[in-house]
Every structure is written in structure tokens, then in C-alpha cells.
């Protein structure tokens, strides 16, 4: 199918099937966190071991996403979707009926090998199917799917775990995964251009070691501490492997991941903004539940309900943001969104032990609304500057950076929180002892622990405010990419490929 025909009549049926598959994969990823304590009890494993259900999933994603640019160019979108969905369905079945913890981890990692390719694949089909001036609306619908899953995931899983067995989380996903696979088999057609490129095995090994080690190192830093060999050792190995990987890609004619796309200034700027925003966004997602459950003593289910309106609003805003992007461009939206994010993150820094439930809910909801005006417009504006053949590399690069910056942001902010918590705890204990209070009294100790935790969380939010402010300053330098330029570049490249 040629580009002109494709742009005049986008294949909505094909896109709907891809959307459905991606939604199922993303919903699954958000369901499991609430169930971890129940799984720990059933299989009699420690927290450090049960974390492999999320760490293992993330590691496979981190390894596969950088390689997705190669897969998308080498294989047809139909073949990729069917392979990814088959792996995801197999992994879900294995996890649902796992007799041992090891089988459950294996099931999750097989799931991840399927889910890891879904987002880059869907984004590339969207970029191919819609002309530049209509991409905002299209990517907005894509955002709706991506945001809707995290919106309903934690609350739904909280309710399921309270009333049913944790295996139900996988059993309800299984028929939907199978349905997506069947629909894909009968209805999916090929619309993305392919090239006969060969895989560079050494690049694949370097990418796997580099991105895998980096993600693992930063993910375990919050739990093990930066002084642990397991943390700084894997980070060093990851950095060295990535440096060698980048140098190798720059020398190759057909690189696995094209780093030369950073010569496009708006793509480079959008990447930097996304890294900073991802680091700040994860602070709200990690620190808010800790504050709500530890300081305020709200149950996990109600904590999920508190965050639900924000996640739903973010999902609803996504298609609206897409249309606004087509009309006004990314700079206006990103500036407004990041201003809201900076203000609300600072207000989170002012929380205390008695802040009301609905006050927290309102703050979180408005913060998420601000975020919804930033991510998709910034990403789409950057991708719009790339020629058609570079789209797989652009989407792979963006998704990889989001994973890594999310892990780094979380690790740094959890460390900031823990350090402040310890110093605040020592100060409060000394002040209590000076005031004649007994440090053996459980009531006094509980109050001190609550105050120290609050101090750590609010300080981490203050640091997050400055991170968001950096993104706001960077957003002011964004320029709108003019559609004719991008279209001409894409058309020329496509013509050259087909001649």
C-alpha cells in the first residue's frame, strides 16, 4: 500500500486490533503490584525475591525495546504482532497456572517479551498511517489506550485481590489476549515498509548487557542502597556496554539503533524533555502511594481510588491534547502542562499528617492533567521532524529513554526520601528526648516515624519540583515542525527505497 492511499484512508480496523492488543498488555502490567504481598505469602518468598516479578518484566522490556527498531524494519507488522501476542498469551497462561514461583517469574518474562514489542510496533503503524498534520489526534487516541490501562489497573487489582485469588488477575487477561491473537490472525494486513537487514549479534549482546544492567542497577538502588556492589557494579557495567554500543552503531551502515537521529534538533530536544519529565512523573506515582498509606494510613484499595480520577482524567485528556497539538503545536501545550506540574508538585511538598483525602485527590488529579498536556505532544513533535525510515529508531529511542529515566528518577527520589527520612528521624528523636519524652514509648515512636517519613516524602517532592522546572525551561525552546518539510523528507526516502 502506497503512502498517499494510506494517508487518505487510514486502516482503522488494523489500528483497532493493535490498540486492543496493546491495551491488554498494558493492563496486565499494572495489575500485579497490589498482589505482590499475597504472592509472597503463598510461595513463601521474601520481598527481594518477589520483586523479580516486576524487575524481570522490566528487564526483558529494557532489552527488547532498543532492538525493536531492527525487528520493525526486518519483519512485517502482521508477523511481529502475531509473534508478540502469541508470546504474551503463552506467558499469561503459564503465570495463571504456575505451580512454583520460578514458573510464575518465567511466565512474566515470556509475557514481557511479547508486550515489549507492542508499543513500538503500534507507534510505527500510527506514524505510517497518518500524515504529519493529523498525527496529533492519532497519537492522542494512542495515549488514551496507554493511559486507560494504568487508570483502571491498580483499583481493579485491589478489588480482585480482596475478593478472589491472585491467579484471577491472569485468568481475566487470558481470554482477551487470545481474542486479540485470533483477530490479528484473520484481520491484520501489512502496512509498514520492510528492508532486508541483517542483525549484528555483537550489537544485540551489547544492548542487552548495557540497557539490562543499567535498568537493574537503578531499579535495585532504592532497596539495596547506592553502596551495594550489586547496584554500582551493574550500573558501571551498563554504562561501559552502552558507550561501546553507541560507538559501534555510529560506525555501522545499518545500525541496530540509529543514534544519528540526534542531528535533528527538535527530536533531540524532545528526548531531553521526555527524560526529565519521566523522572519527575514517576516521583508522583511512587511517593503519593507511600504518603497515602504510610503517613495517612489509608488502605491500598482506597489509595487506588484516590489516584483513579487523575489517571482517568489523563486518559480522557489524551485525545483532546492530540487535537490541540494539531492546532497549536507542542510548545504552548508543554509550557501550560509543565507550569501546572511544577505548581502542583510544589504543593505536594507542603502536605502534612492531617491533609484531607479529597485535597490529596484533587492535587494528584490536577498534576496528572498537567502531565497529560506534555508527554504525547513533546514526543510527537520530535518524531515529526524525522524522515520516514528513521521512525522505528525514533520510537525505539524514546521508549528506551522513558524506561531508563523512569528507573533513574525513581531510584534517585527514593534515595533522597530515605536520606532525608534518616536525618529528620535523628533530629526528631533528639528533640523528643530533650523535651523529656520516652523513646521506648510505642506511641511516641510511631509519631516520630510518621513525622520523619513525611519529612522525607515532602523533601523528595521539592527536589521533583526543580526537576519539573528544568523541563519547563527546556520546553520554551521548542519549535513547531512544519508538515511539508517532514512529508517531503519522508516521501523522498520512501521513493529511494522502492526504486
TrEMBL record:
<feature type="transmembrane region" description="Helical">
    <location>
        <begin position="298"/>
        <end position="320"/>
    </location>
</feature>
<keyword id="KW-0472">Membrane</keyword>
<keyword id="KW-1003">Cell membrane</keyword>
<feature type="transmembrane region" description="Helical">
    <location>
        <begin position="110"/>
        <end position="130"/>
    </location>
</feature>
<dbReference type="InterPro" id="IPR036259">
    <property type="entry name" value="MFS_trans_sf"/>
</dbReference>
<dbReference type="Pfam" id="PF07690">
    <property type="entry name" value="MFS_1"/>
</dbReference>
<feature type="transmembrane region" description="Helical">
    <location>
        <begin position="332"/>
        <end position="351"/>
    </location>
</feature>
<keyword id="KW-1133">Transmembrane helix</keyword>
<dbReference type="InterPro" id="IPR004638">
    <property type="entry name" value="EmrB-like"/>
</dbReference>
<protein>
    <submittedName>
        <fullName>MFS transporter</fullName>
    </submittedName>
</protein>
<keyword id="KW-0812">Transmembrane</keyword>
<keyword id="KW-0813">Transport</keyword>
<feature type="transmembrane region" description="Helical">
    <location>
        <begin position="225"/>
        <end position="247"/>
    </location>
</feature>
<feature type="domain" description="Major facilitator superfamily (MFS) profile">
    <location>
        <begin position="14"/>
        <end position="483"/>
    </location>
</feature>
<comment type="similarity">
    <text>Belongs to the major facilitator superfamily. EmrB family.</text>
</comment>
<feature type="transmembrane region" description="Helical">
    <location>
        <begin position="52"/>
        <end position="72"/>
    </location>
</feature>
<dbReference type="GO" id="GO:0005886">
    <property type="term" value="C:plasma membrane"/>
</dbReference>
<feature type="transmembrane region" description="Helical">
    <location>
        <begin position="267"/>
        <end position="292"/>
    </location>
</feature>
<feature type="transmembrane region" description="Helical">
    <location>
        <begin position="172"/>
        <end position="189"/>
    </location>
</feature>
<feature type="transmembrane region" description="Helical">
    <location>
        <begin position="457"/>
        <end position="478"/>
    </location>
</feature>
<feature type="transmembrane region" description="Helical">
    <location>
        <begin position="12"/>
        <end position="32"/>
    </location>
</feature>
<dbReference type="InterPro" id="IPR020846">
    <property type="entry name" value="MFS_dom"/>
</dbReference>
<dbReference type="InterPro" id="IPR011701">
    <property type="entry name" value="MFS"/>
</dbReference>
<feature type="transmembrane region" description="Helical">
    <location>
        <begin position="201"/>
        <end position="219"/>
    </location>
</feature>
<feature type="transmembrane region" description="Helical">
    <location>
        <begin position="357"/>
        <end position="379"/>
    </location>
</feature>
<feature type="transmembrane region" description="Helical">
    <location>
        <begin position="79"/>
        <end position="98"/>
    </location>
</feature>
<dbReference type="GO" id="GO:0022857">
    <property type="term" value="F:transmembrane transporter activity"/>
</dbReference>
<feature type="transmembrane region" description="Helical">
    <location>
        <begin position="137"/>
        <end position="160"/>
    </location>
</feature>
Amino acid at each position: 500500500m502506497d503512502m498517499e492511499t494510506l494517508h487518505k484512508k487510514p486502516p482503522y480496523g488494523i489500528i483497532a486490533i493493535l490498540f486492543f492488543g496493546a491495551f491488554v498488555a498494558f493492563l496486565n502490567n499494572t495489575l500485579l503490584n497490589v498482589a505482590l504481598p499475597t504472592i509472597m505469602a503463598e510461595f513463601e518468598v521474601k520481598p527481594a525475591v518477589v520483586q523479580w516479578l516486576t524487575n524481570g518484566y522490566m528487564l526483558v522490556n529494557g532489552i527488547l525495546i532498543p532492538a525493536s527498531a531492527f525487528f520493525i524494519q526486518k519483519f512485517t507488522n502482521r508477523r511481529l504482532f502475531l509473534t508478540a501476542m502469541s508470546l504474551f498469551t503463552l506467558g499469561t497462561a503459564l503465570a495463571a497456572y504456575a505451580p512454583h514461583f520460578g514458573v510464575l517469574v518465567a511466565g512474566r518474562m515470556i509475557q514481557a517479551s511479547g508486550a515489549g514489542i507492542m508499543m513500538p510496533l503500534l507507534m510505527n503503524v500510527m506514524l505510517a498511517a497518518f500524515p504529519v498534520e493529523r498525527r496529533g489526534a492519532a497519537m492522542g487516541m494512542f495515549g488514551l489506550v496507554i493511559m486507560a490501562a494504568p487508570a483502571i489497573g491498580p483499583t481493579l487489582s485491589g478489588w480482585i485481590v480482596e475478593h478472589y485469588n491472585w491467579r484471577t488477575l491472569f485468568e481475566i487477561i487470558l481470554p482477551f489476549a487470545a481474542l486479540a491473537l485470533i483477530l490479528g490472525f484473520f484481520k491484520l494486513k501489512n502496512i509498514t515498509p520492510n528492508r532486508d537487514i541483517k542483525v549484528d549479534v555483537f550489537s544485540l549482546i551489547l544492548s542487552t548487557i548495557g540497557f539490562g544492567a543499567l535498568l537493574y542497577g537503578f531499579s535495585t538502588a532504592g532497596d539495596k542502597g547506592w553502596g551495594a556492589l550489586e547496584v554500582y557494579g551493574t550500573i558501571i557495567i551498563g554504562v561501559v556496554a552502552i558507550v561501546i554500543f553507541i560507538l559501534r552503531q555510529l560506525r555501522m551502515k545499518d545500525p541496530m539503533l540509529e543514534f544519528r537521529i540526534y542531528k535533528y534538533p527538535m527530536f533531540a530536544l524532545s528526548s531531553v524533555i521526555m527524560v526529565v519529565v519521566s523522572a519527575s512523573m514517576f516521583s508522583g506515582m511512587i511517593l503519593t502511594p507511600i504518603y497515602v498509606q504510610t503517613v495517612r494510613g489509608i488502605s491500598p484499595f482506597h489509595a487506588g481510588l484516590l489516584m483513579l480520577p487523575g489517571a482517568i482524567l489523563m486518559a480522557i485528556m489524551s485525545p483532546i491534547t492530540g487535537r490541540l497539538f494539531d492546532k497549536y503545536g507542542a510548545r504552548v501545550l508543554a509550557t501550560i502542562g509543565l507550569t501546572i506540574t511544577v505548581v502542583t508538585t510544589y504543593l505536594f511538598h507542603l502536605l502534612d499528617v492531617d491533609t484531607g483525602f479529597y485535597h490529596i485527590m484533587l492535587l494528584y488529579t490536577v498534576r496528572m492533567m498537567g502531565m497529560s498536556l506534555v508527554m504525547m505532544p513533546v514526543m510527537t513533535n520530535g518524531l515529526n521532524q524525522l524522515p520516514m525510515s528513521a521512525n522505528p529508531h525514533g520510537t525505539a529511542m524514546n521508549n528506551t529513554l522513558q524506561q531508563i529515566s523512569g528507573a533513574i528518577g525513581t531510584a534517585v527520589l527514593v534515595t533522597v526520601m530515605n536520606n532525608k527520612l534518616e536525618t529528620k528521624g535523628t533530629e526528631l528523636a533528639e528533640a523528643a528526648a530533650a523535651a523529656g519524652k520516652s523513646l521506648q514509648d510505642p506511641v511516641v515512636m510511631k509519631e516520630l516515624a510518621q513525622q520523619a517519613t513525611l519529612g522525607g516524602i515532602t523533601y523528595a517532592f521539592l527536589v521533583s519540583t526543580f526537576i519539573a522546572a528544568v523541563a519547563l525551561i527546556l520546553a520554551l525552546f521548542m519549535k513547531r515542525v512544519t508538515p511539508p518539510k517532514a512529508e517531503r523528507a519522508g516521501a523522498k526516502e520512501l521513493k529511494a527505497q522502492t526504486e
